[in-house]
Amino acid sequence: MEMDEGTGGRRRTAPDVDMQRPNDARVYDLLLGGKDNYETDRQLAQQVLKVAPEMPELLQANRRWLAEVVERLLREAAVVQFLDLGSGLPTTDNTHEIAARVNPKAKVVYLDNDPTVIRHGQALLADDRHSFFAEGDLSDPAAVLANPIITGALDLGRPVAVIQCLVLHHIRDTKAAREIVVGYLDALPSGSYLALTHPCNPRDGSRRAEFATGVEEKLRLGFKAVTFRTPDEIATLFEGLELLDPGLVSLGEWWPSPTASPTGASHLIMAGLARKP
Prior knowledge:
transferase; 39% helix; 8 strands; Rossmann fold; SAM-dependent_MTases_sf
């Protein structure tokens, strides 16, 4: 791709967008009410909604969790640097907008390798001097942390909050997912944080497991590598880190509700915030 010299390397020409296959960022955005999608995305979203009609509300809860965590880190931990990996399409309350409400000088770098996300992210941040968009593969921490956009925007010698919201389920092997997390946190100083959400399937024969399996199977129609993990498997992603209250719990437990979902959808996504000692 060609660099736009007039923007100091911040903007690039977006690559061709594949409209023939569903795209995880577009499907996620569609379920949140977004309009940047194609027929193949709508078909997959409808398949998911057949088994999980609560999915839009659950994804909204995931966004609400992200907002709460970013504000908490800014107010309580004085973290002012955020690296949002696999950020997806711009939607309501993006990470940099949340951060700016608390500290206008907070730095946010988004990273994605999706053509649609790249195009929209660059347009959104074209005139923002505290938020940046880097193109890259989150599964290669060394390359990501050497990206000149990231090294130019963030001081990697100071604490950074690494955000991985609903991205690691696209890595089939749990050991590989763990190595990705370690690759980032090992390279960052003490006082850095991991903010992570991940789809969960207890695989214990319960009704909750049956529901999770149904969602997982529908998503695999478009994304073959999709892998939900058990609570114990997700917990391995936080090894060596100090989990903050309320620990590693489902979104349904993060904000307990007196009305339980009949399908257990509120327990489909687990969330955790942890500090590197």
